[in-house]
Amino acid sequence: MKKNVLILLLAVCLVLPMAAGCRRNAAVSDGTSAAGQDVSGDVSGASSTDVSSVDSNAPTPDSSASSSSAAGTSETTSDVIRISIPEGYTLAKICLLLETSGVNSFDKLFSYATSDNFSQYSFLPAASSTPNRCFQLEGYLYPDTYDFFLNESPASVWKKFLDNFEQHAVTFSAEAEAKGLTLDQAVVIASLIEKESNAAERANVSAVIHNRLAQDMTLDIDSTYTYYHYIIEEYVTGDLTNYYNNYYTYIHKGLPAGAICNPGSSAMEAAINPSDIKSLYFFTDLTGAFIYSDTLEEHESKAIAAGVIVPTLEPTPAA
User: Whole-prediction pTM value?
Assistant: First the structure.
């Protein structure tokens, strides 16, 4: 049923492009990134104390029609399918894109990604060290262009993604360590940046996140709730209380328990190298411009002047 909903949404996306909206003023917002980068994919077959911005964790399926790198295109040469994975896609959206392109079924791909042992990849945090994380691979499926075979095995599919990330892991790790971050922290921060900014604002949004972490503030990132609601609630069964309390950053202090999408290299660079602004808040105005503030009073004043409503979501822990 859930997969059918995704496929129905895919059909809608082919007709109506998703519009990025101005939301709550959280330390960062939910996830339709201002650039709209998480709305669709590219397949070419041979080929309130918050801040607000944009989000697309809602699993709006990837378009399989020809288009730019932000939208999915697919064509098959013989048995080879070339697929471009956009920055900011979630594991679930990648699985859908691979299924609609003929690589393998959503169920088989998703099941393997969420249940197999990937301990051979040393850059992946061990499950024992991240007990509150929902999906081990989220954040580490490197956005890039990949060649797959029709009906390729899930093991082979995920190996291609992880082998690619491994090629970048040494550089990312060294740069992160030089700034006092672990690779995993950089990946999680980058995933938030990917959902909350466009290319021009990544370093500034990164600075807001780092500044709030340094002051021991909750991040108040709307996209973490969107991820919980549209991804975790949709694809995980059983008691989800622990995930709610560890991903929803209006009640969880610090970084969420895991990445909320798979960030690209520019978001990783921004996560490791934030700008030097001192702001603790931001929102996007009705034109899509990013407005930053150092204090809550300044933030709310600017939001009112811009005609942006700043809703307050009460931080209610899951029962």
Answer: 0.78
